[in-house]
Amino acid sequence: MLKNIDPALNADVLHALRSMGHGDTVVVSDTNFPSDSIARQTMLGKLLRIDNVSAARAINAILSVMPLDTPLQPSAGRMEIMGAPDEIPPVQQEVQAVIDGAEGKPAPMYGIERFAFYEEAKRAYCVITTGENRFYGCFLFTKGVIPPEAV
């Protein structure tokens, strides 16, 4: 255990998040996502796990240490529901609340069509799979910066 570090963040996940730079992306996926095959195509090249927790719980842990990118570009994406791209299922509503809490203000997610999401995921720095078993619990986050005065 470490002080002030969420216990859901294991050493491999912390190392990856710390290794990412500004503008790198991380995928947080549900249990149905082709996580291993996609992860093998990312910069890291292997799958990371935060097992036995929901997507919202895992993302809360991740956003406790990783800043999102500035409002100048979208920094939080969600996989759209096929045939209903504007529908926001409960799993995505929960994650939206986590993002808003981490940012201290509303920070709406943008939608990514399912197959486009797979292609974006292949270009990510890494993939972290969770224990989320609800459909469309897949998200893409862009890492931001921590300004010098905040350090």
Automatic annotation (TrEMBL):
Q: Does the keyword Secreted apply?
A: no
Q: What class of enzyme is it?
A: isomerase
State one Pfam family annotation. Answer: RbsD_FucU
Name the InterPro entries on file. Answer: RbsD-like_sf, RbsD/FucU_mutarotase, RbsD_FucU
Q: Name one GO biological process term.
A: fucose metabolic process
**Which Enzyme Commission number(s) are listed?**
5.1.3.29
**What reactions does this protein catalyze?**
beta-D-ribopyranose = beta-D-ribofuranose; alpha-L-fucose = beta-L-fucose
**Which keywords appear in this protein's UniProt record, sorted alphabetically?**
Isomerase
What's a single GO MF annotation on this record? D-ribose pyranase activity
UniProt-listed PANTHER family: FUCOSE MUTAROTASE
Q: What is this protein called?
A: Fucose-binding protein
**Organism from which the protein derives:** Rhizobium laguerreae
